[in-house]
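Title: Prediction job returns without error message
Component: structure pipeline
Severity: low
Priority: P3
Assignee: unassigned

Description:
Job completed but the reporter wants confirmation the result is attached to the right record. Sequence as submitted:
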Amino acid sequence: MAIFKKIVVVETHYSASLLQHPTPKNYISKISNDKIRIIGPWLKNPDMFEFVEWKNQIFVVLKTNWDDFIFLSGKINIRSPGICIGKIVNGELIPSHDLAQSTIISEIIQSVDLMEGDAIRYLRRDEIKLVNSELKGWTVVKFEGQNLGWIKILDHRINNYYPKEYRILKT
């Protein structure tokens, strides 16, 4: 009986010995250049990373750690291959909470600073109102310079993407 579950990594640029019969549960693959072009502007230094797709999410692994990742992925169960960036749906990145919390997010991503009351409403997943209505699309929510998460600003409403499992329940 094996103690570690083997993870399969499918490579396009590396050894063919890594190609094995993948199962949907543990299939890790590199993503296409088209997807990398979509993700690139969201990161500070996209050239520092290898991009992989796992469980319908896109993750980044530092290129300096890539050989170790390949080695270990064949030996042990990988719980998370790196920093989750999100997933691409209809040619648009749906960013993950991990990206908002990471230090690799690009400074050019639009953001909005909230006052304390609005930040608490955001963390409760309550409706928040913004004074600056010029912003549209994915926006990082900040409080005192710290990234809290994502909102998507639409024409007549704001969608709160703070993870339900992290929200503040008590008043």
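Comment from assignee: result matches the submitted record. Confidence is low (pLDDT under 50) at residues 10-25.
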